[in-house]
Amino acid sequence: MKNIVILGSTGSIGTQTLDVVDKEGDIRVLAMTAHSNIDLLERQIRKYRPRAVSVNLPEKAAELRVRVADTGTRVFSGPDGVVECAAMPGADMVVTAIVGIAGLDATIAAIEAGKDIALANKETLVTAGDIVMPLAEKRGVNIVPVDSEHSAIFQSISNQRKFLKRIIITASGGPFFGMSRHELAGKTRFDALKHPNWTMGAKITVDSATLVNKGLEIIEARHLFGLDVDSITPVVHRESVIHSMVEFTDGSVIGQLGVPDMRLPIAYALTYPLRRGPVSEPLDLVKIGRLTFYDIDHDTFPAVNLAKKAAKTGGTMPAVLNGANEEAVAAFLRDGCGFLEITELIQRAMEAHRPVMEPTVEDIKAADAEAREVVRASLNK
Ligand code: NDP
Ligand code: MG
Questions:
Q1: Domain range list for the chain
Q2: Cβ atoms within 10 Å, residue 362
Q3: In this structure, are residues 16 and 266 in contact, taking their beta carbons and an 8 Å threshold?
Q4: Ligand 1 atom having least distance to the Cα of 148
Q5: Could you tell me the CA-to-CA distances from 80 to 66, 85, 258 in Å, in that order?
Q6: Whose CA is nearest to atom 9 of ligand 1?
């Protein structure tokens, strides 16, 4: 029996993790967390009977406490409640499926408590990879990626890390692949939320449309696999069948393929180093027929280069990239900013920032707050 905690159980990754739990049969959920969706969390409590849950919004937590009084599940609230769940005694692994830098403290708490991490919350490594990776090493904790590209890279490297030369990270290109900046100017959240291959939470779906997601993933890969960002090459692969590849010193390239279904990398992370029964449809290459590859159009989608620049500057700069993006995407999702403005706002926040090198978690949070302020001030002008 494996005991897990799911941070963000009501989201896209959280609910798909529970699908995998249903299929596997020998995984027990000890704790779960949500931001505000107590209707779904109540159903999850009644089905999985966790010891504890945490709801971010205190008034929602109070309501849920009354609703589930008959179950014996404790209901915590606020950031301390998430940390309480992340460090739950008896848990072997914590699935970090909270969206945004909001997942950082809980991920650190889980690592401090010695829990292995199934890492979906890429923003944690983007903002604080230089703190989180050494901490995991010190605590002897495995960080197994859930992000499909990183799971593919992890699987492709296998035990050959010392021969790794380059990572080829694939990108679907999102819903606006092939369009000009002129065409992108009028795009709304309804257009951006139509991803061709994946059904995901709103924030990451917008990130896929701007290609900020690929930028964040390059920084995530840098921390997970220890290569500099110039050795991580993004390539557009429209079919999302090859989830990423690695090139070894001899020129050999190994990739991982599968249908685009997040339950595959989630199951791999939960059962690593084992593989279990099928969790997705089989891959039918003949039906797909053709796999296509293209360069990134950096003039139209500047996000990848912005992310590489932030990674090269280092210190608090990646946190500024991330914080400005989170704030701009939130504005875009309430029609408060245009599609092209998202990357412009990121650039503005990065230009305004004087990075702190070797930052503490507090420095990172201050940089995040500063970036959000730059974005809000620009939008209020
Ligand atoms: P969703 O928006 O679908 O879910 C987010 C989860 O986090 C929900 O449970 C939500 O609760 C909770 N949450 C939101 N805000 C906060 C907060 N401030 N504090 C605590 N909890 C919060 O996101 P996804 O599942 O799509 O993504 C989760 C993470 O996984 C992201 O970092 C994303 O980049 C990464 N990822 C996602 C993929 C996907 O296919 N979806 C693929 C690869 C990576 P509530 O429901 O109550 O709002
Ligand atoms: Mg991904």
A1: 2-145, 150-313
A2: 9
A3: yes
A4: 43
A5: 20, 9, 38
A6: 8
Q: Is 35 in the pocket of ligand 1 (CB under 6 A)?
A: yes
Q: In the structure encoding, which two tokens stand for residue 13, read together?
A: 């990754």
DSSP 3-state of 308: helix
Sign of CA dihedral 238, 194, 323, 93: negative
CA-closest candidate to residue 133, choices 4, 223, 228: 223
Structure tokens that stand for 322 in this block: 């991330």
Ligand nearest to the CA of 126: 1
Look up residue 118 and give its two tokens. Answer: 């199934």
CA 93 to mean position of chain CA atoms: 17
Instruction: Give me the phi and psi of 347, to 5 degrees please.
Output: -60, -45
Q: How large is the angle between the packed helices 339-352 and 202-210, nearest 10 degrees?
A: 80
CA 136 – CA 379 distance, rounded (Å): 38
Q: What is the pLDDT of residue 199?
A: 85
By the 10 Å C-beta count (0-12 exposed, 13-18 middle, 19+ buried), 295 is classed as: exposed
- The 10 Å Cβ neighbour count of residue 148 is 23
**Distance in angstroms (rounded) separating the CA atoms of residues 256 and 124:** 24
**Sheet with 242-248, edge to edge strand ranges:** 232-236, 164-171, 242-248, 253-257
Joined together, the tokens standing for residue 117 give 């991490």
* Residue 37 CB–ligand 1 contact under 6 Å: yes
Does the CB atom of residue 15 touch ligand 1 within 6 A? no
Atom of ligand 1 nearest to the CA of 203: 2
Ligand 1 atom 26: residue of nearest CA: 201
Share of the chain above pLDDT 70, in %: 100
Q: What is the pLDDT of residues 270-282, one digit of tens each?
A: 999 999 889 999 9
**Looking at the chain, how many residues does it have?**
381
End-to-end CA, the chain: 56
Give the amino acid at 325.
Answer: N
Q: Tokens 């100017």 label which residue? A: 185
Pair of tokens at residue 27: 């995984």
Q: What is the DSSP string of 126-160?
A: HHHHHHHHHHHHHHT--EEE-SHHHHHHHHHHTT-
* Structural fold of domain 2-145: Rossmann fold (3.40.50)
> pLDDT of 60-105, one tens digit each?
999 999 999 999 999 999 999 999 999 999 999 999 999 999 999 9
Other CB atoms within a 10 A radius of the CB of residue 368 amount to 23
